[in-house]
Amino acid sequence: MEKTLFIIKPDALSKNFLGEILDEIQKKGFKIIAMKMVKLSKKKAQNFYMEHKEKPFYKPLVEFMSSNPCVVCVLERKNAVKFLRKITGATDPRNAKKGTLRKKYAQDGRHNAVHASDSLKSAKREINFFFKKSEIFLWKKKRYPTLLHRKLKISDG
Ligand code: GDP
Ligand code: MG
Q1: 149 catalytic, yes or no?
Q2: Site residues for ligand 1, CB cut-off 6 Å
Q3: Does the structure show a pLDDT above 70 at 153?
C-alpha cells in the first residue's frame, strides 16, 4: 500500500486543530502507521526544506517550522500521495478549494496548517527523514469486534 508523509504544522497545533485534522484524515481512509510530536531544530527544518533554499520564503519558513512542535505522520492508503495532496489543497489557502484542509485550517501562504509529500520520491525521502524502519507499524490483518452502532464512513474527497 502506498505511503506518504503528513505534517500538522505548528500553527494548526497551537490552535488545537490536531484532533479535527486527524479525524478527517482517518475518515478519508488513511491509516496512520507512524506518528510523533517533534520540535524541529533550525538545522532539521533547513534540511527538510532544502529544495527551497534559494526561495525568498525559505528563511521565514524555517523560522516558522522550528518555532513550536509539529506532529509528523506516515499515512497509508491507495493512491496516498496524490489523494493527500488533493485534500490538502493549494499552498495559499486563498487559492485552496472549498473543503480542503488548508481552506479550513490555514492562516496564509506560510502558516498553512499541514504538509503533504508532493511525489512518491519525496514521500520516500521525507518518511526516511523522520522515521526509522522500526517506528513504522505494518498492521497485521486482525479482526477486532465491530461497533455495530457506529460504522466508519469512508469518503472519497
Ligand atoms: P507545498 O508543497 O504546498 O507545502 O508548498 P511548497 O513546497 O512550495 O512550499 C513549502 C512551504 O513553504 C509551504 O507549505 C509554505 O509553508 C511555505 N511557502 C511556500 N510558498 C510561500 C510563499 O510564497 N510565501 C510564504 N510566506 N511561504 C511560502
Ligand atoms: Mg512542497
Answers
A1: no
A2: 52, 57, 60-61, 91, 109-110, 112, 115, 118
A3: no
